[in-house]
Design a protein that fits this description.
homohexamer; eight-stranded parallel beta sheet; two-stranded antiparallel sheet; 11 strands
């Protein structure tokens, strides 16, 4: 009798699509990355390295194995054609949302969040966004293009408008972006010290959580395209996730791991741990 | 409608076990590795990186997609208990052989070949072995142990006896091993220059092909535990494989890739290409 | 008095654009790369590492310092918009060609050759191409796209037609591509053994030389997106370049170095040496 | 006259065995490592890299050169035979203890601590253990085996019983392990915030200090088999060591450095610094 | 028309020498490095990687583009002749100072600071030094040499005398160095907790800022010759720089990045960010 | 009873100095390296990695264990003072030679050969040199200095004069160096094809063998300061060593391994294997 195994889902996420409450899907796109590419390799690397992790979180005292979570693999798309890629993401996320399941997308670069915003806002017109990132991502254009990892939150604002976007950990941008943010988003410089104070504004609202992992200090997360020293430490970031555990999350993404830039594998381990915690946040 | 994909077989090897003529199975064991370990990571890395390869071989003018090949994943076993590991391998390979299919095992360290020899010889008492390697692997003991990557071919000889083992590319061993080989195996120093001349001895015999990838020069295959400069070049090795394409192969293994030691990924690509060619050799 | 230096041209290529016979220009685009990206970093890395090289070639017995060669930097283009990138390349190469200078473009991925073909064929309608590569690059479509690194030579054939393209070192492709090549290009499997025999067909013709560096064996050139073992050795490749030194080259490119994948820097050294030799071929 | 040097002891530890109060010994075993192996390379790498360190500690205001410390090299053992390895360790540590010297063992994986516990408890029946680690190591079995790096502290409890084991920095385990710990060990989640409060329980007792270096955050210690983000920072950990400096240590080990996973060498420097501080703790 | 670019100054520092208030110059010397060399590669790597940075600092709310800053490239010097190298640096820094501009030197090893001290003290006899470092650098001799990276601050004291040198973050040295410092410099062990208290002593004085980047914890700065765990965290260090922003800086240097030891590129990003902040400090 | 081991000699070279015929000594100096330094780490890395090697050579059919070979460690010298370093080497090599033993020096950069030439020529005025290298090393000056890795063979010629120096594998230099060589040395471009023909000139002469390992193609030897593609392959080089086995060698060195540039460890294995063969050549 054969005694072999072959699982390639994220650890503890082996439900079928039909049974699942939460659906993990990969979006391995890095076509507008301006500096160091490679986030396309993140979803599969994360699946493999998730087996170095336990399914139980001592932070939330919850276990992935107690929930129905599917991992449906990666969205297929062509290389070199940004609009078609974004359409494919929006279509897939919409399918998940229409089936009354919560999407948890693994990037890819940050631009993959834009079609997710679009898919979610159709169902939840009052959508709010919690955004962890080192960079403002609020440019109107970037190197001549409106669709870019550096403009993605500005494009989100085009859809959602003022007072819906809450940004944390931001420490890089142009002077203009920081100025613009003052009247359009809630922008928390450097850390998440204002997070607790804004929780009442989000209570009961449908919230999408978008985590650009470069919000973390590159000491703990070097595997990314544009490392920006001076970020949040791992414990500080885990504390922030625990703080928001009572919100009503309707979807999430975790983006910008570029695994080849961290030969030690630590960045992969960070991404796996964050995804475990986010999956458990969605399970509530 | 969801448009995602999730395949983790070796490229072009997606047959079911029942339909398959050839069965790929991983044996991620490196428990007796004396120098640099890590071959346990080879089977999964090879599956992922096989997607950088075409299914068509211009060397053999054959295509993986024209054959029924299954990839049944990895054999499960405990860490730190060598005898139990070898038993698990023998049981699994026997199951494949008993079902009249040909096994193609991906190591792991070279000791994993021993239970495969045992499983095959039960069905084919006249089993012959073609062995590509940098090292003789003919020690009687190694650091006090009889079961070791450095004794595996000697253990094979315990089973098969004289005139059944044909060794190529050998360039490292003790003086005693080289002496011993003179009366017990066919040992071709440094390369495969005698391969053509011994083909008649193997014609019509059941042949098992065991490839320790360190037979290749470390210029092209640095991702291994004990790199031994002065090996076969890639073209020279591909030529040797083409030369033996008419033999009657009943099983094979490809061992000793340690992927973490080659950050460029080239060693993974080499292993993938060799496995494609070997799968096609088995298909004849 | 200040005694500092700041040169960032390729070594020995410090002529002004107006004085130059040969113009080096970088095309740091990798937007359609399907496997491992990063060729965008090649031009600047090559400029820096060229200072580990001598300007004198003992192969051709020529010295870069004896010619007027300019290095005008990199072409500017947006990320995530392939058609605009190709237009920018064509415009820049056309400017060089119109000024009666020979372009030597440093990629970037192989698709950057297509606009160079277009710019050159306007001036030289009888353009012929010598193509060194591991891959056929003859697909009609790739992952749904007509413009891709995997289709670039097929797109070149769309412009030039039969009997104009001469391919060497090819060892990877689909069965269909190899079939198609039989009636449309000269395709030399594995090496350049037929190069000498086809020289008469190219004598006196305007020739564009496009070198995908992955034609080299990954033992010497691991820093590339899709390493394909079994390629040309460095000396074998240098011999091929010497063999074509009497042809009438009107332009050239050297593409597909992805420097981050080779932490040893050897691939950078290879690219620098090849560019030195190619610049000297153009100088004739 | 020859003016050469050849010292391969840990820096400042060049006493003879007979003169020594403290004896450093390497245990380069990683046979049950379930994820990424390589701790076998730690002892020799640590000896070499210790020469980047000063012998003086400004933390403890003590200098290695003021004490008699021997470094007797590594214990010899076979690969692939876990029970024989553990016996060899126990025999060697017993020899050190019987000579009224304090052992400071350098791992290797964490399982090497078990025979040290056994050797020490023979002399000190009231042995207590301070355990720094990311992982509980409290499983009853792991992948079918009772002897494993993931069960080592549970095996220690088999010997010592309740109220003898004090665990700090723990942040990974199964739900069952955390439950079990509640009634059998003192387990401090995430950090060492309870360390000061439990000092009175350890005052005057014979204490063995076992440090799995993965207790540190992988930002500062990436060179380990199973990196677990969210650990103790280096200063926080040094503060903990200073806090326990008045205890009666009878032996110690520092385990789980896997040097090949951190190409920067920082993890080696961390291990060296921790060993210097631990040697000075033992000297009291 | 050509549309190419070729800038190799530090980002936002493209003023001419004559127009500049601040002059960046590289000193790629690592001739006395005792452990791991390679700081010679820092200045050019920093220039390239500075393009991953914004010119605007949200810490100081200042933008490089609002100031006149020149980057004049690297000082030329021979390898293997330390005295000639130091002379070349002193001559170049003197030229900058004599032109009433402020030098910002990028090392290179720390010994390059000595000729800068000499050049500055000629113009500012009351020169004070703020020194961030992991190491005391106060040895009288090191391995038989008076001129060494390990003696550079002692040599600075030879020139300036007592009460002029303020050291922060120090955590490594011989017992003698720490003793000597007690009566000759202000030495802050481990961090910069005393920085605020000594500001009044520096108010109005001409201050030279010398930053050995290894003052940072190697978690965030692994790319250096002698990593010393337990250092300042990035935010802590940025806070220290903000704290001194009102002082009268007359020159500065940032030394000891050895880029090859950090394959992730994070150390380069740290150096770039520190240089941006220091350039803005000089601009006041 | 303790059962530990601690040997740090090159494998099989554990004779005492007094008993030895051959004396291995390290010269870890890289002070004039112009491009990528780090050869200072070679001797100790080679000693460690030699344990991946057998003591028996199937190429020469000789075993290190059959000869008396001592490894006396590394020569001590200061950093940053080239003349003192060269004096220390000359003194140590002279001591070995005066004791009627043969030195086998492990570099370090190539300049360390110069004091060895001086020490040997005192005893053997008719000294001849066989020189394997990628570079001519025949400059009169290099960056203003007469003592440099790039001038070392020219300095050797200053001592020995015409017709004493035989260079192989050379493929890089200035046009002037190649011209100069025509009348002063025997220079074999690219390979060792003329080696056999010059053997009669060396028969019976005292010969010093200096091997700059960059003579090998960087495919097999990437761990060096200035990789120069197009070099000798490993087998070709081993054949050359076998060809000269009857000559009368009076000393040798193996230089220019820079281990940090080859993370795979293959370059270390190459250096170890070459040193084994050279030690056996000296033993004749």
């Amino acid at each position: 009798m054969l005694n072999t195994y072959q699982s390639h889902s994220f650890i503890g996420c082996e439900s079928s699509f039909d049974d699942a409450q939460i659906v993990i899907v990969g979006a391995p796109f890095d076509g507008t990355t301006s500096y160091r590419p490679g986030t396309r390799f993140a979803p599969n690397q994360i699946r493999i390295d998730s087996y170095g992790l336990e399914t139980y979180s001592p932070y939330l005292d919850l276990d992935l194995e107690d929930y129905q979570i599917a991992d449906i693999g990666d969205i297929e798309f062509p290389f070199g054609n940004t609009p078609k890629v974004l359409d494919a993401i929006e279509e897939n996320i919409s399918t998940i949302v229409d089936a009354n399941k919560k999407p948890l997308m693994i990037g890819g670069e940050h631009l993959v969040s834009l079609p997710a915003f679009k898919a979610l806002v159709k169902k939840y017109p009052d959508l709010h966004i919690i955004h962890f990132d080192a960079h403002t991502d609020l440019r109107e254009h970037y190197m001549g293009e409106k669709l870019s990892h550096a403009t993605v939150i500005r494009r989100g604002w085009d859809i959602l408008g003022d007072d819906k976007i809450f940004q944390f950990g931001i420490r890089s941008g142009t002077k203009e972006e920081f100025e613009w943010a003052k009247s359009h988003t809630h922008l928390n410089l450097f850390d998440a010290s204002t997070l607790e104070s804004i929780l009442p504004k989000l209570q009961g609202k449908p919230v999408y959580l978008t985590i650009d992992l470069d919000v973390l200090d590159p000491s703990i997360f070097s595997g990314t395209g544009t490392p920006e020293p001076g970020g949040m430490m791992m414990k500080e970031f885990l504390d922030a996730l625990i703080m928001i555990k009572e919100l009503n999350f309707v979807g999430a993404d975790v983006v910008e791991l570029s695994p080849h830039y961290d030969p030690s594998g630590v960045s992969n381990a960070v991404a796996c741990k964050v995804i475990r915690e986010v999956a458990l946040l969605l399970s509530k």
